[in-house]
Design brief:
Elements: E1 5-10, E2 13-21, E3 27-29, H1 34-38, E4 58-61, E5 66-69, E6 72-73, H2 74-80, H3 83-92, H4 98-110, H5 132-143, H6 155-160, H7 162-184, H8 198-207, H9 218-230, H10 238-248, H11 253-264, H12 272-286, H13 291-298, H14 317-332, H15 338-351, H16 354-358, H17 365-375, H18 383-403, H19 425-431, H20 442-446, H21 451-458
Helix pairs in contact: 3-9, 3-18, 4-7, 5-7, 5-11, 7-8, 7-18, 8-9, 9-14, 9-17, 9-18, 10-11, 10-18, 11-18, 12-15, 12-17, 14-17
The protein binds s-citryldethia Coenzyme A.
S-citryldethia Coenzyme A is lined by residues 46, 234, 237, 268-269, 272, 297, 303-310, 359, 361, 364-366.
Length: 459
Amino acid sequence: MADEMANITLNGKTFSFPVHSGTEGEKAIDISKLRQQTGYIALDDGFANTGSCESKITYIDGEKGILCYRGIPIEVLAENSTFIETAYLIIYGELPSRKEMSNFSQKVLRNASLHESMLHFFDGGFPFTAHPMAILSSLLNSVGCYYPQMVTNQREQDLEHFDDAAALLLSKVRTIAAMAYRMKNGLPLIYPKRDLGYSQNFLHMMFTEPYHEYYPHDDITKALDLIFLLHADHEQNCSTSTVRMVASSGANLFASVSAGVCALWGPLHGGANQRVIQMLQEIHDSGDDGTKFIEEAKAGKTKLMGFGHRLYKTYDPRAKILRAAAEKVLQVVKLKDPLLDIAQRLEEKARSDSYFIDRNLYPNVDFYSGIILKAIGMPTDMFTVMFAIGRMPGWIAHWREVAEREKGKIIRPRQIYVGSPRRDYVKMRHREGEISSDYESDDHKSYGGGASENAAAKA
Ligand code: SDX
């Protein structure tokens, strides 16, 4: 029996529902028997008030700006960990021992290359104009074809190969991303190197020139590694919820993360980082000091991209870390980027404007990440791909959390129908002679008659 109950009174009758408490004190009314007991369903546009599951992976307190991976604050990990070590933590629930870290890193490294026959995808498989997120979602699913033992859609078997599949996806997502960039820019594909770290190897595969092997400056590698780490998970965001939904049908890890990439691509979600830079560039090119743009955002004509968040009603803790990192990277690359000045001015203006204050709109993870990516030479159409590489550990961990659930339910929300009830539609149309019953056509004959004939025949 729950220690607290929530009562709902409908038509004079009171129904009680148990209240669940999370380990950080969050409260949830369990309405899993609501329809069975009352005949009613709950309706919650965008699920802003609805928990889809219980999870042990990430905790967020949006009011206080708290983000923890497996209980460890993001600030501690940003300061002391690396992306791959944090990926291990998110996937397996504990920080790795030295030996575990060495084994995991080796496994990731060993899986960096793609099967040679996959390279044909980059030789005419996509137009040069293809967006890298379209290439990424396609090829993440395609990679699974080379490992049939990992994509059986039989829970036990797919879970048996989980460790290999996880390391493989973490590693290959980076190689596919780099090769997509190279193909789009008419550059030869670069193979990963065995003696480079995760982010270093990625930058090497991205920016090596035919006449010059590229090895990034340590600070550049650290900046990108920090971006990946800060994106590694964020509980039930749109793309992770997509991964969980696809996983709930019994689908394998490769299909699930491929669907996650598609959800992340949207401009309201992971696609925002690309839109932020485009917005800052437009403001810069127009000579506006940001005032005009903010007025347009307040009038609902546009959105201040990189601002606002479903959960954070204070500064996104990741944005705070990225703002400082952006300033540091610009010093390292000795770049004076006017877009950073515009971003900081825009933030100051927005944070002193009642429209944004009243709605608790603060910079989110996307507001400053683009400045860093631009400073290290990443083209804007690769920005959301960076988000996807970073988010891969979270997607993998959430897939496993769904797959390991005993008797886990397929995710299938209900709805309220607001269309026109038209039970007698066909008969009415017949009565009005609009659909003549001897209406003949080859199409109708070949398909055994349309809905109207079938219904009329039954009438
Ligand atoms: C990510 O969920 C996650 O965890 C996501 C993420 C992750 O790590 O996975 O954190 C990553 O997706 C960050 C968000 C990136 N998106 C953007 O920066 C796009 C701009 N932001 C907005 O589109 C918006 O803030 C959302 C989508 C992020 C959140 O939208 P909500 O929670 O549905 O809030 P809302 O749209 O209902 O906005 C409430 C009010 C509205 O005004 P009113 O109708 O009350 O008058 O605030 C306004 C909105 O118009 N508003 C904005 C705004 N964001 C909200 N107005 C101007 N500019 C904005 N950016």
